[in-house]
Amino acid sequence: xxxxxxxxxxxxxxxxxxxxxxxxxxxxxxxxxxxxxxxxxxxxxxxxxxxxxxxxxxxxxxxxxxxxxxxxxxxxxxxxxxxxxxxxxxxxxxxxxxxxxxxxxxxxxxxxxxxxxxxxxxxxxxxxxxxxxxxxxxxxxxxxxxxxxxxxxxxxxxxxxxxxxxxxxxxxxxxxxxxxxxxxxxxxxxxxxxxxxxxxxxxxxxxxxxxxxxxxxxxxxxxxxxxxxxxxxxxxxxxxxxxxxxxxxxxxxxxxxxxxxxxxxxxxxxxxxxxxxxxxxxxxxxxxxxxxxxxxxxxxxxxxxxxxxxxxxxxxxxxxxxxxxxxxxxxxxxxxxxxxxxxxxxxxxxxxxxxxxxxxxxxxxxxxxxxxxxxxxxxxxxxxxxxxxxxxxxxxxxxxxxxxxxxxxxxxxxxxxxxxxxxxxxxxxxxxxxxxxxxxxxxxxxxxxxxxxxxxxxxxxxxxxxxxxxxxxxxxxxxxxxxxxxxxxxxxxxxxxxxxxxxxxxxxxxxxxxxxxxxxxxxxxxxxxxxxxxxxxxxxxxxxxxxxxxxxxxxxxxxxxxxxxxxxxxxxxxxxxxxxxxxxxxxxxxxxxxxxxxxxxxxxxxxxxxxxxxxxxxxxxxxxxxxxxxxxxxxxxxxxxxxxxxxxxxxxxxxxxxxxxxxxxxxxxxxxxxxxxxxxxxxxxxxxxxxxxxxxxxxxxxxxxxxxxxxxxxxxxxxxxxxxxxxxxxxxxxxxxxxxxxxxxxxxxxxxxxxxxxxxxxxxxxxxxxxxxxxxxx
Length: 778
Hints:
Layout: H1 8-11, H2 26-31, E1 47-53, E2 59-66, H3 68-71, E3 76-80, E4 105-106, E5 112-118, H4 121-128, E6 132-138, H5 144-150, E7 153-162, H6 165-171, E8 174-182, E9 194-199, E10 205-209, H7 214-225, E11 232-236, H8 251-264, E12 268-271, H9 274-280, E13 286-295, E14 301-313, H10 319-328, E15 338-347, H11 361-379, H12 383-390, H13 408-421, H14 424-436, E16 441-454, E17 463-470, E18 476-480, H15 489-501, E19 508-510, E20 513-514, H16 529-556, E21 563-566, E22 569-572, E23 575-578, H17 579-588, E24 594-600, E25 618-631, E26 637-646, H18 654-673, E27 704-709, H19 735-746, H20 762-777
Parallel strand pairs: 1-12, 10-11, 14-15, 18-19, 26-27
Antiparallel strand pairs: 1-5, 2-4, 2-6, 3-5, 7-15, 8-13, 9-10, 9-12, 11-20, 13-14, 16-25, 17-18, 17-24, 21-22, 22-23, 25-26
Helix pairs in contact: 7-8, 10-11, 11-12, 11-19, 15-16
């Protein structure tokens, strides 16, 4: 169904929507009473599953696997391998290349080869260490460069071509070339991967999974068990974080728990140890980016040639969509008259990289900002001047993939406001003065934009369902296909339903996402959770309300305009009724008080094969200004101040949206500054614990941190109450921090573009500083 904006959405005083209301589980979160899967009461006889893997640091062919000592260990009920899978030994989301258990080969260090089912988790973990696996080693392909040399990919190459980049490059007054490495990122969700499977009658299975995609869990478990989808129910009330790491990669753990439950006939639970979780699961894709940009003497871009070499890991997973979105955002906010933007999806003998907040977009945008900085440094101009010069505008508003940027004026206005509120130009003078008078410490300043496309680029994912029941006591049962991972989706959808019925939020009962209530759902991802699910719930509530209005019109011989829902009452002319009274009367009159709402995003026409159409419903915009100080003797860095202005349309819940913006920025800042993933020459992840992998802490938050919502005219598209998505775009606000670090390094010698890779750890900053000094001398 295509949703049309209800005029009452804008005219009727709103009671719940656009209000800064607390998260529905806020009190439970801070008091420790929120129930996650590992907090659920375990049925009597619950068994515990622990994945087993080869500690031998090799990639290679399995010659023998001796599990006798494992089986004989105390508390072990069963030891499972690929031969124990009753259905298909595959937990992939689409391409059939992710085995639940390794069979003939170990494809990466940490791959699951067997599983121990024990009476306790500790006994199962101890038993798993006794396995003897003999492997014939194969030299692993570990880096993007290795994969390029071996010409090994998980998917065919893909590209966008606009105009004639060769002609444009030849016509450019100046040409710059460069390359940079962009690191990956561990999701580091607070709640690790966990699932609990309970056998049901007639071969059915109830699976509680910490997943962003319950329907995919349902499909995967059914496939692995060899039963129909209808025999499997997946449920999740809340996750302790997901960030994309539980979109497809929750599949394997739900499959293992389900195979164990099917094999033993008892409830089985799996909860990964943090080290195992980090070793066995995929990360944000890391890239090597080779770029060339042609521009005129003012800094206006004429042509670009960008090549993204993505390390995908051993299987496809979600690399098709992730890498496509990298290309979609390789323009950042800038018009490229002629462009060739290419992607190679490289296969390596490492864990399969997967979805991560931003889904490839942050990597594409960071590469674009590197080109802008390079132009500015080479011309001795301020980077903000070059950014604004290349912004999309009324005459230059077509992206490299052919979609117009219709709201370019929002971006211009937002950046202009941020430029003024952050006092950018005065601070630029202060930074210049500081750097001229300090030999060791150097400051950097950057103001960068965000333009992020909202919608799944796989068209069929842009749909959602919701189930709403109105009971005769006036209470409302709400269910939908979206999942709650701390981002406040459940709260926002409940606000929308409460607004539609005109009741207090206490009347709306939020229930766990469950595939037996709302089927065939998409993942909660692509920042579309509220756009899709809130609209589906709104349509469901509206349909029930319309039935009540029709019924009341017949009973009171009046028109619909005489009926008003609000303040927990239904007003009919000069009479007032409790909603429960109306619901009881309607029920007695045999009026249906339940509806399954459905919403499909309109206007999505993207055809990947021809690279034509409209992949996004709209764009979300934002801007960040960051000031940093680096120590050129040690590489240490501090973020001194950050100013953010972000566009969320008409916010459904400003408190939640501000939290998402702050959290997304800090997560992006971690990706670009402290979170470094390191594999050794044998393919072992060495940064697999908080002791070696550094996420941002409270002390990393900028001392001055100003975050505001952009006050605009709302989303021009007919989204729910004219709001905009907020989940992923804020991650890319952190580009300002990286560009500010680059600016600080660049101050060491004018005209020389730093070779700074991401993340800009102290080591990376020192490397860039030393390289800059060497090139200055030469």
